[in-house]
């Protein structure tokens, strides 16, 4: 049966549903830009939930002050995406993003002047800028070296209370581990996502709280893997704290992890109510730059979809997400065929040592842009003035080493959406409702 094509006409199409794509959609919604977002699921579930701005400048130089780090970066790596935005833009991007998440039911702490030290799934510590409110207690307990109980669950892989305690005991002596059986999941392997959904049921919360109370001992605070509900986790946590009688905090687990799934599900619920056309769990198959509009085509189980957009933000990530493709011939950008800056040959992709502290050149490959994050063509000018790029697909950054994944995503999406607004105003596209960052009143 031939299905009828569904057609959407928008001012902005955001391709990708990682943090960069979601941030671009938030900024566009807040500026009244008619937007469609298309993105395959997956990437956001990898994140810990921590929003890193900038945690490491050089091999062994962890940053306490990310803002100072950004100023140093501008001097040492002027091509880095974070060196191409102003500090004011980075601050505005974090504030606007975090405000949206908080209002939509996944509260985060605001970006401060200093990085905080937060717990990783392995029980190591990393610098980050913003943490979900359910994880703030871990930052505080670590800073205070509080008497703390870490709980894990039989059958849960990827999170071990004993490992957390073993890795931190030197600097946090009052840390203790206990293993419990999760209510209703006495046998087999446990999955954080299933546990989180179970804890939305009052009876499960009561039973788990009773089991934690039994092993509480003299602990002043209790750390759990990130399983405290999928929607409105701060409310689930508050109820558990009331039942246990002690403050709690969450620690991220290995991916796929609940903090990212929470964000994805929240966006999928909230965006359509804010007027955004969301086409989740799909990939754009082709992008064509016609004179009157950019035409995107894809298909879902209901048939073909055509999107006609005045502007496009490409936020398709790196290799893991399919935004970049590595082959024997080199690294390519598979959707549009944009030029990719990369080492001259495969021999130059990796350094000799796998664990080389300088990282590997392949990780800085990506798309080169102008100051507004418009990808450049091989000739050096904008590939198309209606096309912008944001997030990890950008060249000249190694987000893993720099601990700057969310920072690049949010800051580049912020600048790109502002430039989209200017482009729409220039071309007379859209209803003229949109406002640039300076002209915007409500967030
Ligand atoms: C294991 C892991 C842990 C992390 N932990 C942290 C952390 O603690 N703190 C932090 O700040 N950052 C962290 N990050 C990084 C963070 O996830 C990224 O910085 C962030 O998601 C921004 O990336 P992005 O949106 O540019 O790309 P991605 O997140 O990779 O998203 C790209 C999206 O584009 C989609 N896509 C690709 N091709 C198409 C197409 N043709 N059509 C439509 N969609 C397409 C993909 O499906 C995906 O949804 C972590 C990442 C990983 C992998």
Number of domains: 2
Tally of individual helices: 11
According to CATH, the homologous superfamily of the largest domain is FAD/NAD(P)-binding domain
CATH third-level topology of the largest domain: FAD/NAD(P)-binding domain
What is the CATH first-level class name of the largest domain? Alpha Beta
Proportion of β residues?
Answer: 15-25%
- Major sheet details: 7 strands, mixed
Shape: globular
CATH architecture of the largest domain: 3-Layer(bba) Sandwich
Average pLDDT level:
93
Ligands, deduplicated:
flavin-adenine dinucleotide
Q: Could you tell me the radius of gyration in angstroms? A: 23 Å
Structural class: alpha/beta
Low-confidence stretches: 431-443
- The helix/strand series, from N terminus to C terminus, equals EHEEEHHEEHEHEHHEHEHEEEEEEEHH
Structural key phrases:
single chain, 443 residues, alpha/beta, FAD/NAD(P)-binding domain, Rossmann fold, 2 domains, seven-stranded mixed β-sheet, four-stranded parallel β-sheet, 11 helices, 31% helix, globular, disordered C terminus, binds flavin-adenine dinucleotide
Would you summarize the structure shown here?
By secondary structure, the protein is an alpha/beta fold. The protein has helices spanning 19-30, 66-76, 87-103, 133-144, 161-168, 192-198, 202-215, 233-244, 258-273, 399-402, 405-427, and strands at residues 6-15, 35-39, 56-58, 61-62, 116-119, 125-128, 148-153, 175-180, 221-225, 248-251, 277-280, 286-289, 294-300, 303-314, 325-327, 330-332, 387-389. 46% of the residues are buried.
